[in-house]
Amino acid sequence: MEKSNIVFIKNRANTKKSEEKLEVDDQHVTIQSRTGGSVVVNFKGSESEIMDIGNFFKGIDEVEPLALNIAGAGDVDHYFRGISDMTANDDGLFNLSVTLQFLSSTV
To answer: Which of 67, 100, 65, 101 is nearest to 84 (CA)?
Structure first.
C-alpha cells in the first residue's frame, strides 16, 4: 500500500506571514467527523513528533483559516477551533487532538 500524508497549511491567505505546512503520515492520524461540519483530528506518535504537531497548531488563533489536504485530494478550507493537551499512552506513545470547522462559503 502506498504511503499517503495529511497536509495542514496555515497563513495561506495572509500576505504578511509566510505560508507554513505540516505534513503527517496518515498512519499517525485518525479523523472523526462531527455534526455541524466539524472534525476532530487525532494524532498519535512519539513525544517529539506530537510536540512538533502541537507547536504548529499552538500558533493558530481560534477561527483562523487553515487548509487540510488528505492524500493529495486537494485543499479543503477549515477554521481552527482548538487543541487538546498532549497525553501519554501506556504503550509509550503520545496523543493530541485538534478540532476544525469546515469553512463553508456562501454564494
So the answer is: 100
